[in-house]
Amino acid sequence: MTLTLWAATTNPGKLRDFAVAAEASGIRVEALPNLEGIPAPHEDQPTFAGNASLKAAYYSRFADGTVLADDSGLEVDAIGGEPGVRSARYAQDLGFDSTEARTTDERNNLCLLARMEGIRQRRARYHCVLALACSGEVLVTADGSVEGEILTAPRGTGGFGYDPLFYLPELQRTMAEIPLEEKHTLSHRGRAFRALLPKLAGLHRK
Fold first, then answer.
1. 3-205: which CATH topology?
2. What confidence tens digit (pLDDT) does each residue in 103-161 have?
3. Quick check: is 71 catalytic?
């Protein structure tokens, strides 16, 4: 029997990343039914682990089965780990706006570029924490990260979030230039999901 995990997200990019990472393990990841009709919890934790656990426990109360929740984002060393847990709301938090931005992702990317103007040290990482919960109880968590650098201009049309700015020196490509099938093997979500698998197997052996 194929195990289904209900993902507490409507983000199509995240759902795609999880589905591809899970496919090789015979696990299905699908969006939690009626998620858009459930009032969202207030994500007030200072860490990825805290927010992932909060969301997993909260949404598992509305699910018949096990809920997968993530909190992930970008950490840039030269600006104190920003945008961190506020990655999805970075431009909004800073009150940044631009007529060039057509989407929230583009606005966040332009905000980051403006924040890093003149900064030569561009080291950064994508970090993801996954949490599984059932009936309001967090069962396990796992995390993954990938190191890279922030470019001074976007490259590539794939991916989402900060992918067009996140450059992998060893591949000489941004996350937005990497095919999906290859991306899941090295992305922070793929690594976190693979770290989750043995813990998930342990739960089913109990």
1. Maf protein (3.90.950)
2. 999 999 999 999 999 999 999 999 999 999 999 999 999 999 999 999 999 999 988 99
3. yes
